[in-house]
Design a protein that fits this description.
Blueprint lengths: L2 E2 L17 H19 L14 H6 L4 E5 L7 H17 L14 E5 L5 H8 L5 E4 L16 H6 L2 E6 L2 H6 L4 H13 L3 E6 L3 H6 L2 H12 L12 E4 L10 E2 L1 H18 L2 H6 L1 E5 L4 H8 L6 E4 L6 H8 L5
Parallel strand pairs: 1-8, 2-3, 2-10, 3-4, 4-5, 5-6, 6-7, 7-9, 9-10
Helix pairs in contact: 3-4, 3-13, 9-10, 10-12
The protein binds 1,3-dihydroxyacetonephosphate.
Pathway: Carbohydrate biosynthesis; gluconeogenesis; Carbohydrate degradation; glycolysis; D-glyceraldehyde 3-phosphate from glycerone phosphate: step 1/1
Subunit structure: Homodimer.
EC number: 5.3.1.1
Length: about 325
């Protein structure tokens, strides 16, 4: 497996960064090292949450979250149920398994099967504290929208999460930021949690505009989402060039993007939201790469595609070694 690291982000192409005025963008870029230094200080205490919580405490409140996005796999219901059963069996066999609910120190685990399999997969995995989610929803409540699935529908079969803005929906199904924003808000309206996927394409990566792309997507896709609702939002940074290619992003480079996304959240909301929002990395995550990724300060979990279709691989990913 090859890993890849980012070039330094040049200062050109700021025009793409629509969510913030140019001077704020430049200021954020210039102040990033200072901010990073300030945030990394052990026991750093700031005026977060009315001065009651340190940044360190807020960081430690971010429960790890591992998610398996099965995409349009496997081919049949029987195969899907076998995958779910196999994964649960692996979890019970592994030592130190700590998948499962929100117990302190545990990792939250979510799987995203195709719509027809959600109910039965949920019946299998729920006993293990694993939740299910929908790979997408439409933003209307009901009506003549052939082929679409409403938030109320996936909620009624037990979904707790919805993927919003996955790059495959953006590129293959023309999901715009306006529509993604509506889907994020619809997901929240129905008491579910969006996992908002953002990330640059290969061309954008080559242009060195990763930060601008992520900032634009985060700011547009979360427009109108309240600070209170941000407690239920997870962000997944998924560089498009890393998805399904075997080119896992260098852990440190991914961590830098995660830190940058937190600066955007701080601008949009405040430092408390920036530090408490969970941000996953996605793109060719494997058992071999997960430990390095999860050792990073600002990577709170992974959104896994291909490897989540193998019970043993996904079980190992869920049981990443944090030290
Ligand atoms: P891969 O893990 O197959 O690269 O897919 C990542 C992804 O798109 C998860 O949503």
């Amino acid at each position: 497996m090859r890993s890849i690291s980012y070039p330094r982000q040049p200062m050109h192409a700021l025009h793409l960064f629509c969510g913030f005025p140019l001077h704020i963008t430049v200021a954020m870029k210039l102040s990033l090292p200072l901010l990073a230094t300030a945030l990394s200080g052990a026991g750093a205490f700031t005026a977060v949450n009315n001065g009651r919580r340190s940044l360190t405490e807020l960081n430690s409140m971010r429960q790890p979250i591992m998610a398996g996005n099965w995409k349009m796999n496997p081919a049949t219901e029987a195969d899907a149920l076998n995958l779910a059963r196999g994964f649960c069996a692996m979890l019970t066999e592994l030592e130190d398994t700590c998948a499962m609910d929100a117990k302190e120190g545990c990792t939250e685990v979510v799987v995203f099967p195709p719509f027809p399999f959600i109910s039965k997969v949920k019946d299998i995995v729920a006993k293990y504290g694993i939740t299910v989610g929908a790979q997408q929803v439409y933003y209307e409540n009901k009506g003549a929208f052939t082929g679409s699935v409403a938030a109320s529908m996936v909620k009624s079969v037990g979904c707790e999460y919805v993927l919003c803005g996955h790059s495959e929906r953006r590129s293959l199904f023309s999901d715009s930021d306006v529509n993604i924003n509506l889907k994020v808000k619809k997901t929240l309206e129905f008491g579910m949690k969006p996992i908002l996927c953002v990330g640059e394409t290969q061309d954008e990566y080559d242009l060195g505009i990763t930060q601008e792309v992520c900032a634009m997507q985060v700011s547009k896709d979360l427009r109108g989402v309240s600070k209170e609702d941000m407690r239920n939002v997870v962000i997944a940074y998924e560089p498009v060039w890393a998805i399904g290619t075997g080119l896992v992003c260098d852990a440190k480079a991914a961590n830098d993007v995660h830190k940058y996304i937190r600066t955007i959240l701080a601008k949009m909301y405040d430092e408390e939201v920036a530090q408490s929002t969970r941000i996953q990395y996605g793109g060719s995550v494997t058992p071999e790469s997960v430990d390095g990724l999860m050792a990073m300060s600002d990577i709170d979990g992974c959104l896994v595609g291909g490897a989540s279709l193998f019970a043993d691989k996904f079980a190992r990913i869920v049981n990443f070694k944090s030290d």
